[in-house]
Write a structure and sequence with these properties.
This protein is α/β, with parallel strands linked by helices. About 35% of the residues lie in helices and about 20% in strands.
Length: about 290
């Protein structure tokens, strides 16, 4: 990230009594665009995308609850419905309608749900692998077993201490291990904005460990499809060919959308916008231009 580039401004708002953070890239007179990050990520992971699109759009990027510079939830409430509520609260305060939504993974799921709840408020939608887990992961056993596993998981999190890295370089190394496709510059930038420094000089990831928890309730694909069917805006569904995510054309999920195009991006894993940035930007720009 070039040092001479002026970055975004920080702002806060409240949802369910939590103080939540977002960044604003300026150009308030331009069409609005909201960028929603994925799990264990943060708003500044969109910086390369925001820098490329900021001249044409008024870009807002929130830190989801429990992530980045937003507060952690009391009682570890990190269900999809809570994230959707937070985004609804943010957009209600900003009154930037109709808006372009771009979301990655968890952020993509949030964007799709919001677009189905308030279709008249969304102009265009881009979801990067935001349609939920592959079909083979949806069947996870009887309810009592899922509840037992979830309770055990939550109790384990209570005794888990966030990992401390002795240096920023050590945290960067861990970032690159998590996604080997990242360049050295990307890994450094994501780590700088994704960690805080402790009193003893060590570094810790900003996200709350409780965001790792999986709900004991099974993913309700039919209810998700009922929301997707309500989306009226043009939709772009992106997937990396080297990702774990299933192809929405092959698994049937794309058929729930009224007006969607699906693109598989070669050479990309789960983080399409990091792994193939220029190709991602080309696809998004073409889509926004053609459907705008």
């Amino acid at each position: 990230m070039a040092e001479h580039v002026v970055g975004p401004t920080s702002h806060y708002y409240y949802s369910q009594r939590l103080k939540l953070h977002y960044v604003d890239w300026g150009n308030a007179h331009k069409p609005p665009m909201l960028l929603i990050h994925g799990g264990r990520d943060h708003a500044r992971s969109w910086d390369w995308v925001a820098l490329a699109l900021r001249e044409d759009y008024h870009i807002i990027a929130p830190d989801l609850r429990g992530h980045g510079d937003s507060e952690w939830a009391r009682g570890s409430q990190y269900a999809l419905i809570d994230y959707v509520l937070d985004i609804a609260q943010l957009l209600e305060q900003l009154q930037l309608f109709p808006i372009v939504l771009i979301g990655h993974s968890l952020g993509g799921a949030i964007a799709c749900q919001y677009s189905g709840i308030y279709p008249e408020r969304v102009k265009q939608l881009v979801a990067i692998e935001g349609l939920g887990p592959p079909l083979e992961q949806l069947r996870r056993g009887p309810a009592h077993q899922r509840m037992q596993q979830w309770i055990a998981q939550m109790r384990a999190f209570a005794g888990r201490h966030p990992r401390r890295y002795p240096t920023l370089e050590a945290a960067v190394q861990r970032m690159q291990e998590a996604n080997p496709r990242l360049t050295a510059e990307q890994a450094w930038h994501l780590t700088v904005h994704g960690t805080y420094r402790n009193e003893d000089g060590t570094y810790t990831w900003k996200f709350d460990n409780y965001v790792r928890a999986h709900s004991p309730y099974e993913f309700n694909l039919e209810e998700a499809k009922s929301l997707w069917r309500r989306i009226t805006c043009p939709t772009l569904l992106l997937r990396g060919t080297e990702s774990w995510a299933s192809d929405p054309l092959l698994d049937g999920r794309a058929s729930a959308f009224q007006n969607a195009r699906c693109v598989n991006v070669p050479g990309a894993g789960h983080w399409v916008h990091h792994d193939r940035l220029e190709e991602f930007l080309r696809l998004v720009r073409d889509f926004l231009k053609e459907t705008g």
